Structure formats: C-alpha cells, structure tokens
Amino acid sequence: MSESVLPDSDSNTFADDSIVSAYRAPWWLRSGHVQSIWPSLFRQVRMEEPAVESIPTPDNDELWLDWYRQGADRVAVISHGLEGHSRRPYVLGLARALMSDGWDVLAWNYRSCGGVMNHQPRFYHSGATDDLDVVVDHGLAQGYRAMALAGFSMGGNLTLQYLGEQGEAVDSRIAGAVTFSVPCDLAGGADVLARPSRRLYMSRFINDLRAKMAEKARLFPDLISMDGFDGIRRFHEFDERYTAPLHGFEGARDYWYRASSLFRLKYIRVPALMVNAADDPFLSQDCFPDSRDLLGPWTTLEMPRHGGHVGFVQRHGDGWYWSDERAVDFLARLGA
Predict the structure, then answer these.
(1) Are 179 and 150 in contact (CB under 8 A)?
(2) 27 pLDDT band (50/70/90 cuts)?
(3) Bridge-based pairing state of the strands 74-79 and 146-152
C-alpha cells in the first residue's frame, strides 16, 4: 500500500487527533510485510492464566471465553483475527494494557477457534455478529457499569459491523470501540490477498482452514466435502464453496458485501476508532474511507504511514506496542 492512499479529512467530535497518527515505526520496521510478520515471530506477552468459561449459543453451540478479572466495574471485550484465538500475543498485549488502566477483560474465541471444534456445521465468519451479541450480553449480565469493544483484523470488522447493526439501539453501557487493521472491504481484501506477492499469507490461511474443514467434513460428511480442496488457493474459492453456503449467503460476493463493515460505519452511534496502517499488505484502498458519508459522525479513521497488519511495533521497556497505548488512550478519553 503506497502512502498515496492517505486522504485529507476533517476531524469529528471524537476524532481527538484527526487523521494524523502519532505512531513512528522504528527505522528497520518501515515495511508493511516486516511489521506484519515480526510480532508473530518475536512477541511474547506473559499474563496470569485466565478463568475459562463456556457459554451456550441459541442454536445449541458454545463459545469459549477467557476472563481476566481484577474487580473492575468496567470490562473490555476483545475479538481476535482470522484463524486466531484469544491468546495470541496481540490479544494478550492489549489485555495487559487495559488491565493496567483499570479494566477487566473478556477475550473470546470464535466457533472452532482456540483449539475446540464447535458442534454445528457453521463455524465463524467476518459478519457473525450474532455470536458477538451473545458475548456482549453475557458480559453486561455480570453487572459492569461500562463496556468497551476492541478488535483486530477480522475482529475489528466484526466489532464495527456489530455496532453499525445496533445503531441507535446500542446498549447505553457500551462506551465505545477501538479496532486495528480492519478489512472493512472484504471483497477488496480478498483481491489484495490473491496477489502473488501475498502468497505467503494466503497459503498460511488456506493451510489452517484445510485442517479445520477436514474435521468439519468428518463430523458432517453429508454437508461438507474435502474433494477438490487442493485446488483452493484464494478466499474467492474458499468462501464460495464453504463460508457462503454454510452461513446462509448466496455466494462469496454476497457474503463479502453483507459482512463488510464499510457499509455500516455511518450507522455507528458510539465513539469508534479504526486504525489502518497505510502499508498494511492485507487491505484494499477502500479500507481507508475518507468520506464522512461512509464514516459517519461517530467513527474516526486513523492512518499511520507504517504498521503493517496488526503490527505497530515499538521499542518499549515494558513490551507494550503502540496499538496498546493508543487503545488505552482512546478509551480513557471517553470517560468510561
């Protein structure tokens, strides 16, 4: 992604710094690819073991949650990325930072993630806001005064999609949301990741999904088949064959359109921050909306020149990444 995608934009009531970002990448990490890969190789975050909980869904499935409680009266819900889980370093890093600022944290796993296969034929997808709604309701039922939502990559899209669907009906205890590396334009993102230069990322996703779908095919042989899976190289084929039919979409294009938060941002009615680096190798240009008609009055887009995909690495004695600091700062300004 070239720096030419950086737009000019007005700030809104909750933009706090407008679109100009304070993040400055170390000189050796001013590459979107290096920033995207570095944390998965070198970042380690130590946390106390969470309290693990399983909660039911309305369709007789279950979701697995990690709770980090310290007796706070507010809670942050963290949603992970595609084929991630609740104990990825980026989730733990943000959980640690939020706890230091007085939040309890609930990090959840999507269906089939976190090492536990779910019970239904469906698994998860970028627009599965029904599951996030179950988690939010469960969190609020614990008696918290306030809640914040946070998400990385697919989890960022899911978070913003959820808030856009809630619109004016959003629970008054939800104070706001902070998201990073959000593929809010799923169709464009699929096209970007289909490029030869993104083969490393795409191969990893497909290999991870292959193992998951093989297990699904074993459990539901009448619904799911692995025949011809070796010919799948892109999300175009995977979503057309598996994601769309298993989750009620007409096809990949229908799924990408209906699950892209880009078209819901303007309906959000709590302060929401979307941080997308200009050099993110996963995102299309439409993931950087510069129109208030698209963003709406409550959503702020921040575009650091560097940061890659779920990167935002910095040299810091306590191991915090810039995204951890930015999330804490944004949520602190909401007065939750």
Answers:
(1) yes
(2) confident
(3) parallel
How far from each other are the two terminal CA atoms of the chain, in whole angstroms? 35
Looking up tokens 């034929």 gives 121
Q: What is the pTM of this model?
A: 0.93
| Distance (Å, whole) CA 118 – CA 134 | 15
For 282-313, letters b (16+ CB in 10 Å) and e give: bbbebbbbbeeebbbebbbbbbbbbbbbbbbb
Distance CA 177, CA 156 (A): 9
Give which of 141, 156, 81, 146 is closest to 114, Cα–Cα: 81
The Cα 267–Cα 321 span in angstroms is 30
Angle between helices 89-100 and 322-332 (to 10 degrees): 40
Strands 104-109 and 62-68: antiparallel
Q: What is the pLDDT of residue 81?
A: 97
